[in-house]
Amino acid sequence: MAALGQLVVHLVFGFVDLVLLPWRIFNWLMLPTLKEKMNVLLVAGMSVEFFFVMVALVAILIAGGIYSRRFLVGTVSVLERFNGRVGKIAAWFALIMMLQQVLIIAMGQVFRGNDLVFSPLGLAVTSNELQWLSGQLKFYNAILIAVASAYTFIEGGHVRVDLFYNIVAYRTKRWMDLVGTLIFLFPSSILLWWFSWPIAANSVFAQRPMNVWSETARWRGFRFESSGTAEFTWVWTFKALILVFAALLFVVAVSFLLRNILALLERDKEIPSHYSLDGTAPSAAAPPSSAPSH
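^ thats the sequence. predicted structure below, dont judge the formating
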């Protein structure tokens, strides 16, 4: 009972903190030194208070969507199109990765060179060894995975193991998607954020090493972690991308949850779980013609 009471208290204060968030941000900006600001930020990013603020925000979106169908449709559309645009930008790295791989092969195998020099009009703009450029391809691949995964999920492009999903009724599918989002997608995105926050922070900042149980921070400056090899050395970018992946996964979890709530509320219209953002399939976020709006 004590644990349940503490949970209720945290939920209540989550709503209070959400209301007071602009004031807290203002107070944070008024801190006299950058060190104090960064110490507060580093602790807040994986704090219990931050978690319950996000819970309160999702709860408000759900309540608002149940009350107003138009608000629900608009929220789903905004969240999915945000992830869609970010994912489409990241998708260009597939082309960049392919072109750079061709250049590496041509320079190394045809011209027997060890580096790639870009010097228009005789001005040396960049010069990198082929080994460094080959390692950079891993970075492009990491961008594709971390940034475009949510976009792929919206379009239903991920591989899924289906045992009995396709044989059940439409509303049963929506309930399965809704429950699965609550017990799998949300916890996985939250845990990923929680574990990756100190990893990314330790990689980017010079500070006392943090872990998931840290309650204080001692920020001293910026220190971008790099490797001592000849390959692509920006180690900090890979760790920061895990944090980006967790954030986008949480956003798509919210939009997918709201989409299934919309599908369950719309008894006279079937709304697909996934659709193409390119318009090749009907958008579930489009306002239904027969939907009542408060």
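The chain has one domain: 2-90+138-265.
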